[in-house]
Amino acid sequence: xxxxAMKSCAVILAGLCxxxxxxxxxxxxxAKQLSNPVSSLISVPFQFNVDRDIGPEDDGDxxxxxxxxxxxxSISDDMNLISRTILPVIAQDDVFPGVGDQTGTGDTxxxxxxxxxxxxxxxxxxxxxxxxxxxxxxxDLLGSDKWSIGPTAVALRxxxxxxxxxxxxxxxxxxxxxxxxxxxxxFLQPFVTYTTPTAWTFGGNLEAxxxxxxxxxxxxxxxxxxxxxxxxxxxxxxxxxxRYYLDSPDSGPEGLGFRINFVLLFPR
Length: 268
Fold this sequence. Notes:
Blueprint: H1 2-34, E1 42-54, E2 60-67, E3 70-74, E4 79-93, E5 101-105, E6 108-116, E7 124-134, E8 146-159, E9 162-176, E10 184-195, E11 200-206, E12 208-211, E13 216-231, E14 234-247, E15 256-266
């Protein structure tokens, strides 16, 4: 009886270990999918950013929460349509002289990527499509008050634990308040990440914005650490990091800022 009990315990422990290893492997796979902007994974990221030293007197602060649902839609046997939305919620103070603080939403950026379900023969993953900027700003100082449109594209490779690539878009204003400045802007985001077998992701990116209309550029460098885990029955990714502004306009943010990342995951 003792031998049978010991064998039974050994079988149960082996099963538990195998289950734990499989769960950890699944978490690592999800972490790698999150490094791919056009993966077939439904997710809802909440990205909280803090920037300081803004405005002509360098005494302004901005808190920015980006709500960024990502929804992949299968449109054929070999093609997905990836919807990526960014809705910014902003609270800022002393960014513009003499007008105090502003709180509300900024302009919504809606991107649609047509992306093959399988990588190319050389291992590249890509997606391309339109991007639309919708004037959802609740204050003149939080949005452009312009409808803008243009192309967007992403290309990346995933080799072992590494993911590297770049995402870009270019938008031009096509309608809106004629008293506001036209929009002619490019966004460029080269990125690299390293994902461990235990679902930790270490990475960095640039989020460069080029305002061709006003000949200005804003280039923050972001370094971050994220971890896929489970809160009860909900799979999530949590993490954060630092950002440093390599370049910005005279009244733009300077120095160090930080970011907190929280993502709800809904694997199929």
